[in-house]
Amino acid sequence: MATLILPGEWIKNWEKSGNRADPPPHQFSYVGLDIQAALYEICSQVVEGNLKIDLVSSVLGEMMELRDDLPSILADVFCILDLETGALEEKNKRDHYTHLVGACLSFVPEVILKERLDPETLESLGLIKQAHQFNQKIVKIKTKLL
Question: GO molecular-function annotation terms (predicted)?
Fold first, then answer.
């Protein structure tokens, strides 16, 4: 699947003019990437602060209607970003990430997020009450499965 890769300058201008602005044809290139890489690129632009959360979440919400597996793929992207932003010292990027995931809760099932995200992230999103108790329950369940 070919994916459209846009330069950072166009992404910044897109936010100002809405999604009506088309890039000049010579400013973009097609690269053979999959949908997960494209979703990662969009979400990482939000984490970096280059795109507004509400714009991206509305676009992602519309995209989820196109394929049944997109919520799962987006949850995988959130998992990767969870690991990346959890290790960062920059609190604002982590805040951007949690706000993005929070804005996407309406179309990414809570069950999928609980499988893939860090318990501390789930706690900050309000999906679980306490990360420590959640970890204890996971250990008990896994122990019983042995």
Answer: mRNA binding
Three-class DSSP category at 29: strand
10, 55, 78 from 84: Cα distances, Å: 25, 22, 10
Which residues, in sequence order, are CB contacts of 95 under 8 Å at separation 6+? none
pLDDT digits (tens, 9 = 90+) for 20-58: 545 444 444 444 458 999 999 999 999 999 999 999 999
| Sign of the alpha-carbon dihedral angle for 8, 11, 16, 21 | positive
How does pLDDT run across 71-105, given as a tens digit for each residue? 999 999 999 999 999 988 889 999 999 999 999 99
